[in-house]
Design a protein that fits this description.
It is built from 11 helices and 11 strands. Helix content is 47%, strand content 21%. The protein is globular, with a radius of gyration of 20 Å. The longest helix is centred in the N-terminal third of the chain and has 23 residues. The protein has 278 residues and is an alpha/beta fold. Bound molecules: ligand C2E and calcium ion (3 copies). One calcium ion binds next to loops. This is EAL domain-containing protein. It comes from Nocardioides albidus.
């Protein structure tokens, strides 16, 4: 952090220089990685609790750099946002994931839904809507198979633009999911103002579901979502006990290491078959 010196002189602590350099070089490395095709996607299964079947996948970005090793998306997505690369990255994610979906469901022999994470900055401008429409068409999938995961932050910004953009997305036939639900400082009012199809319960509540307060929040989210005509998916499910609780409470879908981490598109059919057999 920037420290004010004794005479009011500002010091930059060495750590700050290092952080800034890191960020700069990470930005340059990411820019190059996009050119060199170093990014890939994995797909994490989403399981319907009633049937036990894999009904969808969430696309998650991976970056294995030859020089930096595996850089987690929590690190490189913010860098892409700040460095003006998120539009390019987001476009790549969208077209790659839609194309992979076509292949995965062909291998599996039945349709699947695809959830894609989008950052708020990606949504600025109409170009994005056309990109979605063309990614869907090129891949030959149905718009209703695509889910766009947004975070509460976008909804709290509360721009008329955001409502209009989400309405357009909806009218394409694409579903809208609020990711990490409950983690933000949201007012619940936005749930009726925006066209939302699904809530994804933040994994912090799921992981501490044995604590009564967290269980109460999970219960409330499920009841509220259903009352508003939305479906509910819980993320970060790691134990049978968590699954049991969510099933009892009527949660629709689950996702987490209990079933599978994200896997390459080519392995999805094998993983999905194993999950259904359990
Ligand atoms: P997220 O959207 O909340 O994604 C879920 C994260 O939880 C993923 O981390 C996933 O690997 C991890 N996870 C899944 N199951 C479990 C579990 O049972 N236990 C635990 N502890 N974790 C689990 P990942 O892949 O590192 O992604 C981190 C974040 O990076 C994502 O959080 C998302 O916000 C962002 N991200 C990833 N891919 C993209 C992308 O293509 N575009 C954008 N804009 N953001 C992305
Ligand atoms: Ca997500
Ligand atoms: Ca999440
Ligand atoms: Ca199972």
């Amino acid at each position: 952090a920037k420290a004010a010196g004794r005479n009011g002189i500002c010091w930059f602590e060495p750590q700050m220089l290092v952080d800034n350099n890191d960020r700069l070089s990470l930005s340059a490395a990411l820019r190059q990685a996009l050119e060199l095709d170093e990014l890939s996607l994995v797909y994490q299964p989403q399981v319907d609790l009633a049937s036990g079947e894999v009904v969808g996948v969430e696309a998650l970005a991976r970056w294995i750099s030859p020089t930096l090793g595996a850089v987690p998306p929590d690190r490189f997505i913010p860098v892409a946002e700040d460095g003006g690369m998120i539009t390019q990255l987001g476009g790549w994610v969208l077209t790659t994931a839609c194309t992979a979906l076509a292949r995965m469901q062909e291998q599996l022999g039945r349709p699947l839904r695809l959830a894609v994470n989008v950052s708020p900055r990606q949504l600025r401008g109409r170009a994005w809507l056309e990109e979605i429409a063309s990614a869907i068409e090129t891949a030959g999938i149905e718009p209703s198979q695509l889910e766009v995961e947004i975070t509460e932050g976008l909804l709290i910004e509360d721009h008329g633009d955001v409502v209009a953009m989400l309405e357009s997305l909806r009218s394409l036939g694409v579903s809208i999911v609020v990711d990490d639900f409950g983690r933000g400082y949201s007012s619940l009012a936005y749930l009726t103002r925006f066209p939302i199809d699904k809530l994804k319960i933040d994994r912090s509540f799921v992981q501490e579901i044995s604590v009564a307060e967290n269980a109460a929040i999970v219960d409330a989210i499920i009841v509220m979502a259903h009352a508003l005509g939305m479906t509910v998916v819980a993320e970060g499910v790691e134990t049978e006990a968590q699954e049991r609780y969510l099933r009892e409470r009527g949660c629709d879908e689950v996702q987490g290491y209990l079933y599978s981490p994200g896997v390459p598109a080519g392995s999805l059919d094998m993983v999905a078959r194993a999950i259904s057999r359990d």
